[in-house]
Write a structure and sequence with these properties.
single chain; 109 residues; mainly alpha
Length: 109
């Protein structure tokens, strides 16, 4: 830990120990911890102001299409209508096979 923030850490430690023993004492120490935090934050702001400017951003990567995305013509590899039809047929066939199995099992006994 940087020595500049030791005062804030000390005040927070005192606040935690006071809260374990007495809530009223912790509330009294809260303003001291807030003041120490404000001082540490101001020191950090001053140090950040002294940093050099950020480097220029990296050039963008070329766009690589992902599977299932639209191609250059604006149409998907598999039209959305066919996907809806596929899921509808899958659910319908599952329902039919369940009903057939249930019916056969019911009459088998």
């Amino acid at each position: 830990m940087e020595p500049k923030h030791a005062k804030f850490a000390t005040e927070v430690d005192r606040l935690v120990h006071a809260a374990e023993e007495d809530t009223a004492e912790a509330l009294c120490r809260l303003s001291l911890a807030q003041q120490a935090f404000d001082r540490a934050a101001e020191e950090m702001r001053l140090r950040l102001g002294q940093l050099p400017a950020a480097p220029a951003p990296l050039p963008e990567k070329p766009f690589l299409p992902q599977p299932g995305q639209d191609d250059e013509s604006g149409e998907a590899a598999i039209p959305e209508r066919f996907l809806q039809l596929f899921w509808l047929l899958l659910v319908a066939s599952s329902m039919i096979s369940f009903a057939a199995g249930f019916w056969m099992g019911r009459h088998a006994t």
